[in-house]
Amino acid sequence: MEDQTSLAALFANMKEQMTLLAFSGIGGAFFRTVLAPEEQWKRRIVQGISGALSAIFLGGVLAHVIDAMTGAGLLSYLAAGFLMGSGGELAVKAMQDSLMVKK
């Protein structure tokens, strides 16, 4: 019975962490949009989605490292989501620029 309780608590915390990562990842993607405007909206949408996905999937790892170093708790998930959202979008933009020809 104790395992079920701890498993339920794990999933409850995971939902909160994923929400924080997604929210801050969108903020990071918006930040990149303001700093580096893109002429083509299709490319910008792909960059934004990839920024949000990298915030969700890679941000958890970075958040765990930040939390272990600083003990910031949920704030580490906000910081990691923002950094990974911005970084993921930048990585996809660099890949698009190197692989695709701008029209």
Description:
Helix 1 packs antiparallel against helix 2. The chain is built from four helices and no strands. It has 103 residues and is mostly helical. The chain has one domain (2-99).
Which ranges are low-confidence, i.e. pLDDT below 50, for 5 or more consecutive residues? Answer: none
Number of helices: 4
Number of domains: 1
Strand content: under 5%
One letter per element, helices H and strands E, the order comes to HHHH
- Spatial separation of the terminal alpha carbons: 60 Å
Number of strands: 0
Judging from the principal axes of the Cα atoms, what is the shape?
elongated
Q: Radius of gyration from the CA trace?
A: 16 Å
Helix content class: over 70%
Q: What descriptive keywords fit this protein?
A:
single chain; about 100 residues; mainly alpha; about 85% helix; about 0% strand
Brief rundown of the structure:
With 103 residues, the protein is mostly helical. It is built from 4 helices and no strands. It is elongated, with a radius of gyration of 16 Å.
